Structures are given as C-alpha cells and as structure tokens.
TrEMBL record:
Its EC number is 2.8.2.-. It is found in: Golgi apparatus membrane. Its main location: Golgi. The chain crosses the membrane at residues 7-26. It comes from Tricholaema leucomelas (pied barbet). It is an enzyme of class 2 (transferase). It is a single-pass type II membrane protein. The gene is Chst12. The keyword GTP-binding does not apply. GO terms for biological process: carbohydrate biosynthetic process; proteoglycan biosynthetic process. Keywords: Carbohydrate metabolism, Glycoprotein, Golgi apparatus, Membrane, Signal-anchor, Transferase, Transmembrane, Transmembrane helix. GO terms for molecular function: sulfotransferase activity. One of its GO terms (cellular component) is Golgi membrane. This is Carbohydrate sulfotransferase. The keyword Transferase applies.
Length: 419
C-alpha cells in the first residue's frame, strides 16, 4: 500500500516538473545570446547563472525564482551562435524603405551617412545618463505619482510597452514619438516574430507599418500572465536580471509637439473620433461636427495646439481615461525607478546612440538601424509653438511632465516658464 502511494506521488511530482519545463521551454528563454557581455552588463562570477549580479547569492531570490532560474540555466541548451549563412541573409535586404504611410511620406528619410562618435565618449555618456536617473529616483526632493511603488505593484496592463526578444536577451521599452516604429522593426527582425511568405524579415524597413504596431506581433510583459499564470512575475524578474534593457527618450515638450503634429495635423480617423471631436466640443465650442476626419478638414474643423494643451491640463481627462500612449509621460510607460535600464538613448543623438547600442548588443553585423526622418521636430521650435499658450498653462504643463525632464537630464525650459 505504501509503495503504491509513493509511486503515485512520484508520478505527480514528475508530471508537475514536466509541465513547468514545457512552460519555460515554450517561451524559449534559453536560446541564442541568453545574456550579453557588454560594457554595461553587470559582472558575472565564474559558474554563476548569467544575470545575477556579482555578490548576489541564491539566498537572495525567493524559492520559486530560485527554482525557475536554475531550471532555465540547467535544462535549456544555449545556442550562442547564429549560422553564418543566416547572418549574411539578415544583412541583405532592400536599400530603400517601403513608404506606405502618409506620415512617413510627409517626413521622408535621411539617407546621409552619419559618423559614429568615439565609443569611449558614448560609454561616458551612458554612465552619466544612468547616474542622473538613479540619483533622482533615490532623491526625495523629486516626487511624482508611482515613484515609490515596487515592480510588484505595477499592474500587468502597465507593462505593455516592454517588448521581449528571447533570442538575443533584450528588453525594449518603447516610447511613442521617440523612433519607436523603427525600434519595433528592429525587435521584429531580431526576434523573428513576423514572417513574410514563411521567411523572417531581414530588413527592418521592409516591415509594413501596420504590422509594426499590431500588438500581436510582439511579446510584451503584460502577455506573460496568460502564458505563465502565477509564475509570470517571477519570470519577469529573472528576465529583468538576465537581459539587456534599453529605452529611448526625448525632450518632453518637443515630444508633445510631435504627437500633436502627427495625430491632429494629419488626417487620422481614429484620433479624430476618439480625441479631436471631444476637444473641439469642449474647448472650441463646436457642435454638429462632421462624422469623418476628411469632412472635418475640408470644412476647416481642426484641433488647435491650444485645444490640445487644455485637454492635457483638464483634470477630467485622466478621470475619464488614462493619457494616450503618445502623450503619456515616459515614467508611466517605462517605470525607470522600478526597472534598472542598461542603456538610455535619446532621440537628439539617435544616430550615434543607435549605432553604439547595436554594437554593444552584438547585432550590428545582422542589421543597421533604419535611417532617421528628415525634418524631425526640433527643440528650437518650442518657442513658436508655445508663443500663444498662456504662461500659467505652460507652468502647469511643466509640472505635469517635470519628472520626465529631470529623470532623463533635460534642462528646464526657463524661457517658456517666465514672462
């Protein structure tokens, strides 16, 4: 009788173990380039599981984290090389972008060659950006909503901007209006998450824009719950330790101008229905508005920049629905005080930062970052855009986005905040 019970217990334990193994294998965590040796990667002690900082022992991890991390490292074979034939294929591709979107037609592309800055300067730049971020995250003089919460306190739906590439061990937090379309394209090529006639895309610019922003294309943290259930948070934490994490940021006010230009100065049916109609009714006192954006533009009904600023400052806005991702603060999208980012890029230095990052990720032979847009919304335009915005509104707007200015080292726009 006792032997029968032991046998049944053994079968149950083995079944549970196999289920966990299948779950982990499904996510393919241990495949190529499971972790990266870069100048900004944390040091790994000999024999330690990659991603655990030197000096950290297994006793610092919760039991489930420990079990899963050991399981990932011991049960899955690491394929750390990409076949040369595949590598050559990835480098190939069309030399010109597929331009199928009005916004991209308007902007055009800059195909000029940009010289890379000295890598030592780039390394120092990264150290300074990370130091600024960490100092202000720890500084009690800077306060903003969600600053003090832990990673466990972040709801799953707020983790939808963290894109995971398990093939190369990369996590990218995308910020709309900060070259995120092309960075998403890069992530698709690296992760091979999208196929064209059965073959993974090799050139980022060959990927149609409508596929780039399709949420089903990317594996993001907020999808982990459906895959892993109660183990999802543990796996997120392990990947945050092991993988290289990066984001790109931008001057907050210039990002707002860029968002306004692309969503309200161009014919965008979705944004007209969801945002323009309410803004025109609330702040311009228009009634009986056209039912389509084309009819509205032909009749001269357009949201003004002043309408847009009023909408952002209106306390009713956030009560009805959280800010749209195109103007939501970066700290709310990427949680920089809860996630220790390894690389912080800026749109103002996009070409140099992108080239350096791909080199550090050891994928620069596989692809190049797509050429940047011409006529990028410039910081020098701020004065013109805000000239007709009342001073009190500008000051309130700065307070709304102050954390993004400070955390990412952007100077306070004193010329806009004083008479």
């Amino acid at each position: 009788m006792t032997k029968a019970r032991l046998l049944r217990l053994s079968v149950v334990l083995v079944s549970v173990f196999m289920i966990l193994l299948i779950i982990v294998y499904w996510d393919n965590v241990g495949t190529a380039h499971f972790y990266l040796h870069t100048s900004f990667s944390r040091p790994h002690s000999s024999g330690a599981i990659p991603g655990i900082t030197a000096g950290e022992g297994w006793e610092t991890l919760p039991d489930v984290d420990e079990f899963l991390a050991k399981l990932l490292s011991s049960s899955l074979k690491q394929n750390t090389s990409i076949p040369r034939k595949t590598e050559q294929l990835l480098i190939q591709g069309s030399s010109k972008p597929v331009v199928s979107n009005l916004e991209e037609n308007v902007r055009g592309y800059d195909w000029s060659v940009h010289s890379d800055k000295n890598s030592l300067d780039q390394e120092k730049l990264q150290i300074e950006r990370q130091r600024t971020l960490r100092e202000f995250c720890a500084n009690s003089s800077l306060t903003f909503p969600t600053k003090e919460r832990s990673f466990d306190d972040i709801p799953n739906y707020e983790l939808n901007h963290l894109i995971v590439d398990d093939r190369h061990g990369i996590i990218y937090c995308y910020v709309p209006k900060v070259a995120c379309t092309n960075w998403k394209r890069v992530m698709i090529v690296l992760s091979e998450s999208l196929l064209d006639q059965g073959v993974p895309y090799r050139n980022p610019l060959d990927i149609p824009r409508e596929h780039v922003h399709n949420t089903s294309t990317h594996l993001t943290f907020n999808k982990f719950w459906r895959r892993y259930g109660k183990f999802s948070r543990h796996l997120m934490k392990i990947k945050l330790k092991k993988y290289t994490k990066f984001l790109f940021v931008r001057d907050p006010f210039v990002r707002l101008i860029s968002a306004f230009r692309s969503k309200f100065e161009l014919e965008n049916e979705e944004f007209y229905q969801r945002f323009a109609i309410p803004m025109l009714k609330l702040y311009s006192n228009h009634t009986n508005l056209p039912t389509s954006v084309r009819e509205a533009f032909e009749a001269g009904f357009k949201v003004s920049f002043s309408d847009f600023i009023q909408y952002l400052l209106d306390p009713r806005t956030e009560k009805m629905v959280p800010f749209n991702e195109h103007w939501r603060q970066i700290y709310r999208l990427c949680h920089p005080c809860q996630i220790d980012y390894d690389f912080i890029g800026k749109l103002e230095t996009l070409d140099e930062d992108a080239a350096y990052l791909l080199q550090l990720l050891k994928v620069d032979r596989l692809l190049h970052f797509p050429p940047s847009y011409r006529n990028r919304t410039a910081s020098s335009w701020e004065d013109n855009w805000f000239a007709k915005i009342p001073l009190a509104w500008r000051q309130q707007l700065y307070k709304l986005y102050e954390a993004d200015f400070v955390l990412f080292g952007y100077p306070k726009p004193e010329n806009l905040l004083k008479d």
